[in-house]
Design a protein that fits this description.
Elements: E1 10-11, E2 19-22, E3 31-34, E4 37-40, E5 50-52, E6 61-64, E7 67-72, E8 81-82, E9 87-89
Antiparallel strand pairs: 1-2, 2-5, 3-4, 5-8, 6-7, 7-9
């Protein structure tokens, strides 16, 4: 599916992206146009952060630049900010140091 917006505050890098980038800070409750629908931003989104262009279910891929950049760690609603609190990278592992590995 392809997503789009005529709203200058939202940037889609690729039509296959299911997230767009805020080109300026957008306050909570602000209406924006996403794929022909009026959507209200659910929380203040800082400049440069991602916004869900559609519902993204738990474990679904987050697509930016036309490629998957990570997976949702919970259901994400359309218009919700997408960041480390609700997605994880599929490329950068999270390491924990086991106490037995310490010198």
């Amino acid at each position: 599916m392809e997503f789009s917006s005529s709203d200058a505050r939202l940037l889609f890098v690729d039509p296959k992206d299911n997230v767009c980038t805020a080109t300026r800070a957008i306050e909570s409750g602000t209406p924006v146009q996403l794929s022909g629908h009026t959507v209200f931003i659910s929380e203040t989104v800082p400049f440069g952060f991602k916004i869900a262009a559609c519902k993204i279910a738990l474990d679904d891929k987050v697509i930016k630049y036309g490629v998957p950049i990570g997976s949702a760690t919970r259901d994400i609603a359309i218009g919700e900010m997408v960041h480390v609190h609700n997605m994880k990278s599929d490329y950068l592992p999270t390491y924990t140091l086991d106490p037995r590995d310490r010198p």
